[in-house]
């Protein structure tokens, strides 16, 4: 049986995906594409982990899933579905099954390998890409990188990071800058950050599908492009709700909601370039921090507010899922990982950043027109001015790491220049 392989590389870390089903490897390569160096390699040359093997075989899935249910196991949640987890310490094996997804996992940590086993190629490819990404995250965290909850765009090597909770405007700001001001898209929801030898902070992408609402697609002028692409046979990411695809094909630009949550189009990373002409950036140096704030009935306004990076902005200690690793357990991105990152970044290098807090959107009112306040904000003269430099009287603050030892220093450094002068 011929095997196929694709290797992913980022900041010195690497993981290889191997499968007899070439469509799985192509799916993984397309997903990570430019953001992480994804390249097909000779499967016969792969001799060491981290290695993720994707197996499409209903019989093997049944065998592994049944073995999990018959062994002592615990129940957890992974990828929004129940997962049964069984550890065999004597054999050095971790087995898991997700009956709802029709997927099973077999990990041998000492060998640095994990198998993803499923009943159809599409579900196996999706699970394999998710797992490969989590393995890469574990490697980068161990190397001292940290994960920030932020969108990021790059221009001339300088990165603008936009922070905030769900619905704060991270995606809107990033997409509008990319669509209207020729920024390269680095990340939609989170990034890796770490100090570099030049005294700055390097920002790397976290590859993922991007959730873009129908109103935002319209406001950016992308709705008809997406509709034409779907009509020609192209497809959006398979994790999105089919109702979104149906709405786009029907020309329905009104945002879709279900129990207070907006249903959005899930875009493949490569579709930003192939559909909308937005380039993908592979890295940059942190140059500015932006903190959008939603306030109903307001227009675009730049504020001098005391907003600084806090624990909520770092995702190193907030894993969404538990994921098999090669260390003998599941990925540890809690306190232990955060402590490791803190020790590596006990004093992050100075980073030329500007803090902005803005009233950007009239929320509760769906973004549905070209004159949307959110798009108007991101395309206003306020944002490009972030790249014009600073006077010495308003020197930028320092960006410090998430470790508790430097928390007080970080809060002091991120205070507004006015507050620092009067303290």
What does this structure look like?
With 423 residues, the chain is of the alpha+beta class. It has 3 domains: 4-142, no CATH class; 146-208 and 278-318 and 338-422, Rossmann fold, CATH 3.40.50; 212-268, no CATH class. 27% of the residues lie in helices and 27% in strands. The chain has helices spanning 22-32, 58-70, 121-142, 170-181, 214-219, 223-231, 242-249, 271-274, 335-344, 373-378, 407-413, 417-422, and strands at residues 4-10, 13-19, 37-41, 51-56, 74-78, 81-88, 93-98, 103-108, 113-118, 146-148, 150-155, 158-163, 184-187, 191-195, 201-205, 210-212, 256-258, 261-263, 265-267, 284-293, 301-303, 355-359. The strands form 4 sheets. A 9-stranded mixed beta sheet has the order 3-1-2-4-9-8-7-6-5, with helices on both faces. Strands 10, 11, 12, 13, 14, 15, 20, 21 and 22 form a 9-stranded mixed beta sheet that branches. The protein is globular, with a radius of gyration of 22 Å. The termini are far apart.
